[in-house]
Design goal:
The complex is a heterodimer of chains A (332) and B (501). Chain A has 332 residues and is an all-alpha fold. Chain A has a single domain, classed as ABC transporter involved in vitamin B12 uptake, BtuC. In chain A, 76% of the residues lie in helices and 1% in strands. In chain A, strands 1-2 form a two-stranded antiparallel ribbon. In chain A, a hairpin with a 3-residue loop joins β1 and β2. The termini of chain A are far apart. With 501 residues, chain B is of the alpha/beta class. Chain B folds into two domains: 187 residues, Rossmann fold (3-Layer(aba) Sandwich), CATH 3.40.50.300; 238 residues, Rossmann fold (3-Layer(aba) Sandwich). Chain B is 34% helix and 26% strand. Chain B is built from 18 helices and 22 strands. Chain B is globular. The chains are: A mainly alpha (332), B alpha/beta (501). At the A-B interface, α8, α9, α10 and α14 of A face α2 and β8 of B. The complex binds adenosine-5'-triphosphate (ATP) and magnesium ion (MG).
Chain lengths: 332, 501
Amino acid sequence: MNFLSRFKPSSREGSLGLILIVTIGITGIINPRFLTGDGTRDLFTSTAVVALLAIGMAPIIIMRHIDLSVASTVGLTAWFIADLCAKNPEFTWVQCFIIGPIIGMVVGVLNGLLVAGLRLPSLVVTLGTLYIVRGAVYVISNSVDYNAQEMPPSLLSLGQKVYFGVMPFTFLLVIFAMLVTAWFMKYRKAGRDCYAIGSNPHAADLVGIKVFRRTFLAFVFSGAMSGLAGVFYLMRFAQVDSTAFYGQELAVVAAAVIGGVTIAGGSGTTVGATIGALLVQTIQGGLAAIGVDAFWKSAINGLLLIVAIYADRTLARKSENALLAQRIKERA
Amino acid sequence: MAQKGDLLLQMKGVQKRFGGAIALRGTDLSIRAGEIHALLGENGAGKSTMLKILAGVHVNDGGTISLGDKPFITGSPEAAIAQGIAVIYQEPSLFLDLTLAENVFIGRQPMKGVAIDWAQAQVEAARLFAELGVPLDPKRQARGLSIADQQVVEIAKALSMNANIILMDEPTAALSASEVERLMTVMKSLKAANKAVIFVSHRLDEVFVISDYITVMRDGATVSENPVTGTDLQKVIKEMVGRELTELFPKTENKIGGVALEIKDLTNPAYFRNISFTVRHGEIVALAGLVGSGRSEVARAIFGIDKYTTGSVKVNGKDLAKGSPVAAMAEKIALVPEDRRQQGLFMIAGVNRNISMESFDRIKGKIFLNFKKERALTEIWREKLSIKYESQSNPVESLSGGNQQKTVLAKWLATDPDILIVDEPTRGIDVGTKAEVHKLINAAAGEGKAVLMISSELPEVLGMADRIIVMREGHKVAELSRSEATQEKVIAAATTGSKGA
Ligand SMILES: Nc1ncnc2c1ncn2[C@@H]1O[C@H](COP(=O)(O)OP(=O)(O)OP(=O)(O)O)[C@@H](O)[C@H]1O
Ligand SMILES: [Mg+2]
C-alpha cells in the first residue's frame, strides 16, 4: 500500500483520470457495451501498444526531444519476429520477448548516437530514421506477409490471456512498465536529470549533468519499448506486413501530450502518458460507436491534441494566477 | 583542513581563445584559504572565462593550474565539484520546472536506499534558506521567483556542496543594499570556516568593504594582484580602464519643461497600489527601493507589458492605452528591461541585428534592409558604450555578460525615445562605461526627454536624479527632491517608510 501511495497522482494526473472516467461514462451512454467487462478489456487491449510507446517516449519529450521513429520500429520488429518464428518453428513467446526489445534497441542506439553524440535536432534525426527503418521493412520483407499459422501458439495464447475478466496480459505489462518508469523518473537521479535537461539544457551542462549519457539512454529505452510494442502488435493482430503500424507515431506523441507531458520539456509523467493513451483510445472507440468514419476520426484526434495543448497553457496560467492571488494576500 | 592563508589553488599563464577571439592571454591568480578574493576588470576582460575554466565548463588552451600540490583537472563540471569547487554563474541557471529543494540538490540528491529522499532534501533546503535569512518554500517551483530570490537559491546550492572554493560571478548585481549585506555575512562566515571565496563585481564600493585581495584583469591578462590594504579605488579603476576617471556622476542642470508622463493611482494588487507621480520633460526621476518593492512592475505596467487593474497613465496629457507595448512605443516610450537575457535580447542573433531591431525605420532601404545603415548604427553604439565584440554579426550569446547588457541598452537608446524608462541601467556594466551611460542619460534629459530610472545603486540614484520616489512593498513611501535626498533618508524610507505617504 505504501508502495502504491507513492504514485498517488499529483493533481494533473488526478484530473486526467477524472476526465478519462467521464469520457468512458459518456461513451458508455452512447454504447452500453463499452461499460461491460468485454468493453473494458477491448479498451485495454487496443490501447496497450500506444500506451507502451507513450511510456517509452515520455522521458524523451521531458528532455525536450522527440522520437518519431517509434511506429516504424514497431513495424520492423513485428515483421522481423514473425519472419524468425516462421523460419524457426521451435521459437516460443520467450524468444519473441527477448528479440523484440533488442531489435528496437538497435534503432534506439542509432537515434541516441546521432542526437546525443552529434547534438543533432531529434526531430530531424528521428524523422530520418522513421523513413530509413520503414524503408528497410519494405526491402527486407519483399512483400512477404505472415499470418497466425506462422506464429508461435504460445505467443498468441498469451495475447489472448485475460486476468479478472478485464485485464489483458499485455496491458498488465504496460501498467508494470508505467509504475517502474514513474518510480524511476521520480526517485532516481538519472530520472531527475531528464527533467533538468528538458527544463534548462544550458544550465544542465553547467551543473555537470551527464547530458550525453542521459539523452542516449533515453533513446535506447524508447527503442526497447518500441521493440516490445512490436511484439504486442503481433499478439494483438496475429498478422503482419510491411505497412504494419504505419503512420501511428503522431498518435503516440498525442497520447503523451494529452497526458500532460509538456512538449516544451521539463514536466510530465509516464502515468499521465498512459492515461493520455487510454483517453485517446476511448474517444476513438466512442466515435466508432456513433459511426464516425475514419477520416473524421483522425481529424478529431488532431483537434484533441490542440485542445490538450490549450489545456496545458490554461493550467499553467491558472497556477500563475494562484501565485498572484497569494501575493495579493501577502501585500494587502 | 586548510589553515588560513594556505595556497589552495594557483593559475599561472592561463590562456583561452574562442575561435579567433582571445579571451585570456596569460592570467595568474592565487587563491588562499580563509580569504575573499575580488576579481575585477572591464566588461569582456575575461573574468567569467577564468571562473568557467575553474568550474570545468571551459578547458584552458595554455598555462598551468594547480590545486594544492596536484594538477587541477579541467574540462568537466563534475570533476570541478569533486575537487571542491562550487560556482554561482553570472547567467541565471535554475531549472524553472523543478522545485527549489531540487534545484539546490540537483545531481546530489540525498538518498535513502535506492530512492531519493525528498523529505530530507526539503528539510536541508529549508535550513539553508533560513541560514540565508530568506524563508523560501522548498516545495515551490522555481518558475516565477524574483531575480533576487533566484540568487538566494543559487547561493544555497553553492553552500550545500560544502566546497572549499566558492566562485561567485557578480552575485550582487541583482541585489539591493540589504540583500547584499546578507550575502556579505554569508561570505564572512565562509571565510571564517577557512574557505576561499572568489567574487566578481562591478560595484567597487562593496569590493573594498568585503575583500582581502584584489586581482585586476585587463584584456585577458592580469594587471595586478594586491592585498586590499595595498591598493585603493583610484588605483584599481586606473588599472581596469587604463585612464583616470574623474567624475562618476556628471550631473548637468537641465531645463525642466512640462509634464511628459503622468501616473495616477496605478494599482495592480499583487505588486503595487495607488502609485502616483509625474515625470517632466528634461527631468530624471529615480524609483528607489528594495528589490521586490514593485518598482520594475510599475515600469512594466506603464510600458504595457503587464496589466494594471485601476489608475491611469497619461503621456503629454493624453491617456495611454493599457496593456499595449505597441501603443507605448507609438508614443515614443522605451523600456530597457531588468531581465535582459530573457526580455531584451535574441541570443543567437547578431549584435547588429539586436541593436537595430527596434529602429527599423532608420535602417530600412526602399525595399530591403539597408545593411550599410545597420552597420553604421551598430558602430555608433559600439563606440558610445564601448561594446566589445569580434564582429558585428557575432551572436549576442558569445558576448560577455556586461556587453550583453550594453547591447540591450543600445537597442533601446537607438530608438531615440521621448520618454525613456530604464530598469537598472548600469547593472553588470564596468565602471568606465557606467560613467558613459550616465552621460548618455543626462544628455537625453538635456534634449528635453523624460527619464524614469530604476536603480538599486544608491550613489547612482543620488547622483543622477532630479527627484527620487521611494517604494516599499508596493507602496510609494517618499518623494524627495534632489536637494532633500540623502543616503540615510532613502534607506530609511525604503526599509521602514510608512505606507500612508
Ligand atoms: N562562448 C564564447 N564564444 C565566443 N567568445 C566568447 C565566449 N565566451 C566569452 N567569449 C569572449 O571572451 C571575452 C571574455 O569574456 P568574459 O565573459 O570572460 O568577460 P567578463 O570579464 O566576464 O565580462 P563581464 O564583466 O561583461 O561579465 C569576451 O570578449 C567574450 O566575447
Ligand atoms: Mg562575466
